[in-house]
């Protein structure tokens, strides 16, 4: 009865739970691992991604929930459930997902290993010669790094590290009279490869390091009876939401460094353990970490499937994954000429759509600026950087060449905090002016400005976008960005930098919408404008592509616009808390999600505006954190040609029937399939073929654009006439 009541409460809510929606997103990623049309290696890659995603989910989302539970704070989920009932529902869903994850591994992927040239074997399954090699590896490399840590009445409970493979070894000796059994922990060294590799002719054998340790575990317990040795792994709370200081005068960098250390000893929110584990061990762990069966995941396969990345990166197999096509020249930079960008951008704006267009124009512009004698200064926000970053190298070079360099480094970029602090300190030493975040706000905007003296005039070269200044992820994430010397953008961006690096209060921006200033309200006004047009019988329509949709205030405006008759098409990759297609609430709202070879990261906003579309790109999703706790910027795309390109990006995403999933009213998703004789359309492939004709023909709401429909029909007629003439 209680289960039915909880289910009804979730179904009756106007909103989808953020955390349950996230788990559904990870199911869409798992769906890629089930795709038989992909190579085994691509499928293993997606399985590893689901494991990585789930690690972050438990550290951050489940960790956040436990902040409320452990600190006695009230929390009501979008589903309407309080903390404890929601915890139960969420962890039940997580258990179902993990069961499905391991089912895919054991029944669909593992049977294909040998025919694809490799296998994962235990030491006992090896030949005698191979066993000797593994034994030598254990003695010389693994054994010296192992440190047994006993827990009993004489020894305190050791600090076990977050997400490390650990053996819980239960032992007993003849002398153990008062205490029949003891528990000892052996953590697997994190700086060793997950697999020991053996080459067998055309076959590669991967031997898990944990199985090598299990094989030789008696070496650590001489003259002691081993009752059981069970592998497990813990995940600790990595969310600091309730602990973050609002004190502007605090030593911000030191604060972040302290919090990074707390990750190592935060409360345990998940325990993964192999099946048939020791009840004695589990009783001690439950009591020690205040967890129950909901937090405990008994696994039927390898613990921590992120280890598969070693297989995927093996020289023999890395070419057997998806081969990315070479980038194509942007339509707005047809010669792909990055040598004379300073001259080119004075005449024409450029829009880039990554990874279909390379990030090279942005990197080359920055590198040229670092060396150019006429460049006076560079200002840039940085959220995440690549390893061996060319962006960082260019900024260092610019500082060495005496240019003014201002960099706003976000040290709260999750899991990149340490890297960003180190990189910021390097830039400081080189003479750059570095700001480490803005206290309680996370700087998430992607923005760069180059100031160049050209004769009597100073020109500002501006780059704004949706993606990070990371040349590695720019090859895997879809993003959109704008390069321009337009004076309105330059003024707005210059003002924005003054705001985030000083105490300036700007006038109204012309081409920017910013957070935390007024982004939510301006987006609401744009939605209301469409609703007013619909109520007056005028054409209206909204198409938005984002990563996450969670803000209740904006969702409520979508509901109101839907009731007014506005057709709303939302392309939301991950978390989506709106309910599409509910009677008397959201009949005019459709939601899709694209999950495929590339990580969808583009943010684009389209408002029909009675035939004069308003189109924006930028860094923000529709989330409370984006509007209230982050420094974000959206930019209007005002150039008509570039606006058409942005509209075409949305059009292709809506047209996709290979990577797209349709969200249903209950929050579940179904894979989109071609209807009837509709041709197959894979946006991740078609974006490499975009030309000017495609741009002219793209239309989001054809019924609202009779003139475009007429133009399309006229073009088709002309094509038919040309065919006839040739005949």
From TrEMBL:
Residues 130-311 form the Polyphosphate kinase middle domain. It catalyses: [phosphate](n) + ATP = [phosphate](n+1) + ADP. ATP binds at residues 53, 477, 573, 601. Residues 15-120 form the Polyphosphate kinase N-terminal domain. It comes from the Bacteria. InterPro entries: PP_kinase, PP_kinase_C_1, PP_kinase_middle, PP_kinase_middle_dom_sf, PPK_C_dom2, PPK_N_dom, PPK_N_dom_sf. Pfam families: PP_kinase (PF02503), PP_kinase_C (PF13090), PP_kinase_C_1 (PF17941), PP_kinase_N (PF13089). Transmembrane segments: none annotated. Mg(2+) binds at residues 384, 414. HAMAP family: Polyphosphate_kinase. PANTHER family: POLYPHOSPHATE KINASE. This is Polyphosphate kinase. It comes from Adhaeribacter terreus. The gene is ppk1.
